[in-house]
Structures are given as C-alpha cells and as structure tokens.
Amino acid sequence: MSAVKLIENGFSICNAAKQKGVNYSTLSRYVKIKSTTGTLDTASIGYKKTRQVFLDELESLLVDYLVHAARTVHGLTITELRTLDYDLAVANEIDAIPPMWSENHVAGEEWAYSFMKRHKHEIAVRTPEPTSIQRMTNFNEDNVNIFFSNLETALARSFVPTTVRERVIRTEDAIGQSTRRLRKLSTGDDR
User: Cβ(24)–Cβ(17) under 8 Å?
Assistant: First the structure.
C-alpha cells in the first residue's frame, strides 16, 4: 500500500491519509499491522464477521440438519440447539470456540439467537405441539396411499360428502339439545 510507504518515508499518518484519500483509522490499523508483523500479507481488508464460530459451509449444513429434524417431528428447543452447536464445534475441532462455551459445555445464548436471526427464513424457535407416537407412526406413505385409494373408490361410486352447511346445522341442533338438557338438570324446574 503506497500510503504506508509514505509514512515509512517520514509523512504523518494524517497527511498520508489525506494525500492518498484513505481513512485515517484504516491507515493507522495498516501501519500497526506492518510494524508488528513486518508485512501486510496478513491484513484483512474490510469488515470481518464478529464471533463467527462456524464457517458458512458448516453453518449451512447445521441449518439443513435443523430443517430436516423439524420436518421429521424432532424439532429442537433453544437449549438443545445450544448443546448441539457446542458438540458440533468440539467434534470439528473449531479453533474459535469462545471460552464460555467450553466452561458451560453449551453455545452462548447470544450466539444462538444471532444464529437464529441470520437464518430467520429457514428456521424458527417455536414451542412444538405435542404429537402422539401413534399419530407419528401411522402417518406414513402406506397409510396415505390407502386413504387416497379409498377416496378414489368412494368418488367413483358417486359418494358425495355432506356439505359444510349441513354439518353446521346438525352440530347446532346437537349443541342446542344438550344445552337444554343440562339446564333442566341444573335448575330442577320440571319435577
């Protein structure tokens, strides 16, 4: 960088920055790197991601796993996500593991929520609805195929399901009758 060479030739950081049209803070950072390492080869240009523990590739694999787990009715809570993140970092021998992760054996809350924010279109934290094991095991390809074959058979026989309006009227009649019965039982007027 020619501005650093100007400083080596006796210019002040401020004058060199003005002459080359470079930000003063950026130039002073480069001068500091050059004085400590002797070269600018290790200097990074621009902003780097702060606290990025996983590389983008590994993070996208983690997102894919979380999406797959949620689709197979094994969604993770935020605590389970944090434990998984820590285990993934240890298994992949990540160098940038924060010290608090190692102390607590879980990823940090702040990191987990920023991870969720980075991937807000793919994953979300929600309280899962309870699903019975019977319902999970019965909802499979064979049972779905049986349902649709039965539906085709019924439609082939000109089976017409009752309309929604008919169902609503029947439901109102049933609710009205049960309400009247309960009123009679509770008041005791018809003795």
Answer: yes
Given a contact cutoff of 8 angstroms between Cβ atoms, the answer to whether 40 and 1 are in contact is: yes
Range of the domain at 23: 2-37
Across the chain, which has 191 residues, the per-10-residue mean pLDDT values are: 74 82 81 74 60 83 89 82 92 88 92 88 74 75 87 76 52 49 39 45
pTM: 0.47
Residue 61 φ then ψ, to 5°: -65, -40
DSSP 139: S
**Torsion angle (degrees, nearest 10) of CA 106, 107, 110, 116:** -120
Whole-number Å distance between alpha carbons of 24 and 119: 35
Domains: count for the chain: 3
Please say whether the beta carbons of 27 and 40 come within 8 A: no
Given a contact cutoff of 8 angstroms between Cβ atoms, the answer to whether 13 and 26 are in contact is: no
Q: Is residue 133 part of a domain?
A: no
What gap in Å lies between CA 100 and CA 77, rounded to an integer? 20
